[in-house]
């Protein structure tokens, strides 16, 4: 009985903490986005006297020659291209690392793991991109996002790959499959759960990325959704109602993605440990 009570108390504390940490800020964002400039400047949780959400949305979308629409296009294109490259290369690398067993395997694993430990360097990366004529280009920022996300995705794919029996590979080889045909025809379709996890986690991270587009993809024409926050805040004047409306608009796509793929996300994260 005491164990049940302690378990319920821990769960209640966890739920309360999640409400305070996640839902209260979201409620504050929605509430402020519905206010006029005067009420929004008070920065409180009072209910607005008049709802200005629709007019705030129209003003945010039309700001700076409809920069938000262009930013949504840039962020979406950057996210989709990065995900495609990440899924293909990370799954292939994980397959090779999981299936081979020689002296080079521990070193390869060490270098992949070091990608999660060693922080990225801004100035050298800019220099490399500039030398390759990729600075301020979509190709350059996509390569940066892929490079930063590869270690996590490779380890995630590798953990799931361990649950796939080697007998499947051997049977496919006997049937005449080999190389790329073996991987993309036999192995890759089995990776749907972990691929869904990679899509959700990395899509949210890349779409909401602020620092990498700021450093490696500058320019008003290259603006991403997070950089549009600068449109409504400055050193001297901040339009809080428009700022929080912008935050609300750019939060909706990742939130919907997480809600629809929540079950697949959990399944992909835990399948390797459960089956292993």
TrEMBL record:
All residue ranges annotated as the ABC transmembrane type-1 domain in the record: 72-261
Membrane topology summary: Multi-pass membrane protein
Membrane keyword on record: yes
Annotated compartments: Cell membrane
Residue spans crossing the bilayer: 12-34, 76-96, 108-129, 141-161, 182-207, 240-261
Keywords from the UniProt entry: Cell membrane, Membrane, Transmembrane, Transmembrane helix, Transport
The keyword 4Fe-4S appears for this protein: no
Listed GO CC annotations: plasma membrane
Pfam families in the record: BPD_transp_1
Alphabetical GO biological process terms: transmembrane transport
Family: Belongs to the binding-protein-dependent transport system permease family.
UniProt-recorded name of the protein: Carbohydrate ABC transporter permease
Species name: Cohnella thailandensis
